[in-house]
Write a structure and sequence with these properties.
Elements: H1 2-26, H2 32-60, H3 77-103, E1 108-110, E2 114-115, H4 126-153
Antiparallel strand pairs: 1-2
Helix pairs in contact: 1-2, 3-4
């Protein structure tokens, strides 16, 4: 069951990716109301994949041995670097794809429904938008780092002050 279960989970994820990609790309060639309907199929595909892979994992991990207790806060530096790079990548990608989604609408308030007829209606170029998104990502991650720094302040105990009274 181990190899077959793993292959089944990988196949299910690949199938879901293909379905979501198909409806995502095909959505560019149909009207807005049809495109909105495609999102239902995409969400249902992802939810079904989560349920199927979770069911496979339950059978695959049944009877698994524990490798020891979890030691929180002890992670090799290479793994923490990978986690940080993953956070930067996701934050940046969300910003860029958000702009791409808005950028394709160009001069529309509501795409294909209400056009923006104002004189200064424009969408910034990808270069300008990527610079602004990069600045926003740096600000966001700096704020996250600041929050972690603040949380560390409470973990250190202060030395008792001995003074002359």
């Amino acid at each position: 069951m181990g190899q077959a279960g793993h292959a089944g989970a990988v196949g299910d994820v690949r199938l879901a990716a293909a379905v979501v990609l198909f409806f995502g790309v095909y959505g560019y060639f149909v009207s807005a109301i049809v495109r909105i309907g495609f999102s239902v199929y995409q969400v249902l595909t992802v939810l079904a994949t989560i349920a199927v892979v979770m069911g496979i994992d339950v059978f695959l991990l049944r009877g698994a041995r524990s490798q020891g207790e979890i030691r929180w806060g002890q992670m090799p530096s290479a793994r923490s670097t990978r986690c940080f790079i993953l956070a930067v990548t996701f934050t940046w990608l969300m910003g860029l794809m958000g702009f791409a989604r808005s950028g394709i609408r160009q001069h529309w308030h509501v795409f294909e429904v209400m056009r923006d007829w104002s004189v200064d209606a424009a969408t910034p170029g990808l270069g300008k938008a990527s610079i602004m998104i990069s600045i926003c990502v740096l600000i966001f991650l700096s704020l996250v780092a600041f929050i972690f720094w603040l949380s560390e302040l409470g973990t250190h105990r202060a030395e008792p002050q001995h003074g002359d009274d």
